[in-house]
Amino acid sequence: MKAYELLLMLNPTLDEDARVGVTEKVNGLITADGGTVDNADTWGKRKLAFEIGKMTEGDYELIEFHANPDAIAEIDRVLHITDPVVRYMIVRRDDKE
């Protein structure tokens, strides 16, 4: 399994239950193929450098995990169609193998 880092920018108007629901959904996607979530860190709301869809801030979540490379395509597909997710970035971490 390879080490990855996922940074999610969620819609800041989400209530706490919806935000937790999205992160639990992502955690379920990671663990579905035998992956493990190593660390999940909530950064909270941060001001954006420029507006995205009339939003001036975003709610950030950082998830560090280990997964098979095949699972990344499925995580990418689901995040792309999940409405509360404004932006996301998945990065492979060579330093945390």
Annotate the secondary structure layout.
Blueprint (H helix, E strand, L loop, with lengths): L1 E9 L5 H17 L3 E17 L2 E13 L1 H13 L3 E8 L5
Antiparallel strand pairs: 1-3, 1-4, 2-3
Structural summary, described in words:
This protein has 2 helices and 4 strands; from the N terminus they run E-H-E-E-H-E. It has a 4-stranded antiparallel beta sheet with strand order 2-3-1-4, covered by helices on one side. It has a domain at 1-44 and 68-88. The model has no long low-confidence stretch (mean pLDDT 92). The protein is α+β, with helices and mostly antiparallel strands and 97 residues long.
Fill in the keyword field for this structure.
48% strand; 31% helix; alpha+beta; 97 residues; four-stranded antiparallel sheet
Unreliable stretches:
none
Average residue pLDDT: 92
Helical/strand content category: alpha+beta
Strand content of the residues, in percent? over 45%
* DSSP helical segment count: 2
Major sheet: size, sense and barrel closure? 4 strands, antiparallel
Strand order of the largest sheet: 2-3-1-4
Helix content: 25-40%
CA(first)-CA(last) distance? 8 Å
Round the Cα radius of gyration to an integer and report it: 13 Å
Helices and strands, in order, run as: EHEEHE
The shape is globular
